[in-house]
Specification:
The chain is an alpha/beta fold. The chain has one domain: Rossmann fold. A five-stranded parallel beta sheet has the order 2-1-3-4-5, sandwiched between helices. Helix 2 packs parallel to helix 3. The protein is globular and about 30 Å long. The two termini are about 15 Å apart. About 30% of the residues are buried.
Length: about 140
């Protein structure tokens, strides 16, 4: 739960700039602060430095894919607790199965409906049991 007056923060990583803009706009209107990354390495760096409340990862990204980022986040004690959702345009069932096996709570297919994204992010943020003491 955030400190009184603190905004919830989500990191959104996708190599498609239009997706980043749309997701940022949608979540910002709900009072969520969005940090963006356009590749896997940048996502990992920003997650480690800024410790968001939740992370939304595209599976297919340059440098590190979403699954690689997820594994590195889980291996780091600073980021291991952060809930992660995957989103992708791939309709590959094996990716969905892999995300579940890795422990991801939510898997969103692109294109997504605005309400689906908002509801998924709300559930993802609610799953973060760690209390934020300061606004990032």
């Amino acid at each position: 739960m955030p400190a009184p007056g603190a905004k919830r923060v989500i990191l959104v990583a996708d190599d498609d700039d239009s997706i980043l803009r749309v997701v940022t706009m949608m979540l910002s209107t709900k009072g969520i602060r969005v940090i963006t990354a356009d590749d896997g390495e940048q996502a990992l760096e920003r997650a480690t430095k800024q410790l968001p409340d939740a992370i939304l990862l595209d599976i297919r990204m340059p440098k590190l894919d979403g699954f690689e980022v997820f594994e590195k986040l889980r291996a780091n004690p600073l980021t291991a607790h952060i809930p992660v959702a995957f989103f992708t345009a791939d309709k590959d069932f094996t990716d969905f199965r892999k995300a579940q096996e890795m422990g991801s709570l939510i898997y969103i297919s692109k294109p997504f409906k605005p309400n689906t994204l908002i509801d998924s992010v709300t559930m993802l943020l609610a799953s973060n049991k760690r209390r934020r003491t300061t606004d990032i």
